[in-house]
Amino acid sequence: MSDKRYWVFLIFLFSGIIIGGLLGELASKIPFLSWLAYGKSFGLTDPLVLDINILKISFGFLVELNVASIIGILIAMLLYKKAR
Question: Along the 84 residues of the chain, how does pLDDT read in single tens digits?
């Protein structure tokens, strides 16, 4: 996979994740679509803190996936395949 294709694929993938996650959050307020918001979170829930007196840096990582974001990933992959 060339560099340009790789970046285009990542853009499609991240767009699918973001749009799917947003739609999942919006669907959580609609009773018959609330299943789209079901998901899990994982990562560093308590950030690691590096404190060197004059500088304080926090490191954290949290991934929140729901059903709609997974569907968004699949749609993004199909759209990427069609766009090539």
Answer: 578 888 999 999 999 999 999 999 999 999 999 999 999 998 988 888 999 989 999 999 988 899 999 999 999 999 999 987
Q: Are strands 56-66 and 39-51 parallel, antiparallel or unpaired?
A: antiparallel
Q: Rounded distance, CA 19 to CA 59, Å?
A: 26
pTM score of the predicted model: 0.77
Gap between the Cα atoms of 51 and 54, Å rounded? 8
- Name the token pair of 57: 């840096």
- In the block, which residue shows the tokens 């499609």? 12
Tokens 């590096």 found at: 50
- Token pair 């500088």 is at which residue? 55
What's the total number of domains in the chain? 1
58 touches 46 (CB < 8 A): no
Domain span including residue 10: 3-83
